[in-house]
């Protein structure tokens, strides 16, 4: 268990994304909004929770067959694009206050996805060597 990850900015951001996606999901479900709204928020909650558990349990170090930070970047970018479309549509249609609240929370979640992408891009460096044979700096 990587307790340092929970206290890091990336860990706090992942926790905030999970909680905000869950709140967005609950707003859409409680307001009987279109199923696509709730499906997007539910998927974002689940996928972000899986990435949080991946980093928290240090499974990314054990499963080296995939470059996990790059997969996390792709997830954040694709989630941001879907959130932009769906949440703007939810705000424009605003069939009731729950849908409007879910749309606003979804746009805040969009900002967190972009911040997560920026933090991950700063962490990744393709120029420096990785692995056990890399020289210490």
UniProtKB/TrEMBL annotation:
<dbReference type="Pfam" id="PF01284">
    <property type="entry name" value="MARVEL"/>
</dbReference>
<feature type="transmembrane region" description="Helical">
    <location>
        <begin position="99"/>
        <end position="121"/>
    </location>
</feature>
<feature type="domain" description="MARVEL">
    <location>
        <begin position="5"/>
        <end position="125"/>
    </location>
</feature>
<keyword id="KW-0472">Membrane</keyword>
<feature type="transmembrane region" description="Helical">
    <location>
        <begin position="69"/>
        <end position="93"/>
    </location>
</feature>
<keyword id="KW-0812">Transmembrane</keyword>
<dbReference type="GO" id="GO:0016020">
    <property type="term" value="C:membrane"/>
</dbReference>
<feature type="transmembrane region" description="Helical">
    <location>
        <begin position="37"/>
        <end position="57"/>
    </location>
</feature>
<protein>
    <submittedName>
        <fullName>CKLF factor</fullName>
    </submittedName>
</protein>
<dbReference type="InterPro" id="IPR050578">
    <property type="entry name" value="MARVEL-CKLF_proteins"/>
</dbReference>
<keyword id="KW-1133">Transmembrane helix</keyword>
<dbReference type="InterPro" id="IPR008253">
    <property type="entry name" value="Marvel"/>
</dbReference>
<feature type="transmembrane region" description="Helical">
    <location>
        <begin position="12"/>
        <end position="31"/>
    </location>
</feature>
């Amino acid at each position: 268990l990587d307790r340092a990850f929970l206290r890091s900015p990336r860990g706090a951001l992942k926790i905030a994304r999970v909680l905000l996606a869950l709140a967005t999901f609950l707003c859409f479900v409680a307001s009987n909004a279109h199923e696509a709204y709730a499906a997007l928020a539910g998927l974002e909650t689940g996928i972000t929770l899986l990435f949080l558990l991946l980093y928290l349990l240090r499974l990314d170090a054990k499963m080296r067959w995939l470059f996990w930070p790059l997969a996390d970047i792709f997830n954040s970018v694709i989630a941001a694009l879907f959130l932009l479309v769906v949440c703007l549509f939810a705000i424009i249609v605003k069939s009731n206050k729950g849908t409007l609240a879910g749309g606003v929370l979804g746009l805040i979640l969009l900002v967190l996805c972009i911040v997560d992408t920026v933090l991950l891009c700063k962490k990744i460096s393709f120029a420096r060597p990785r692995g056990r044979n890399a020289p210490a700096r």
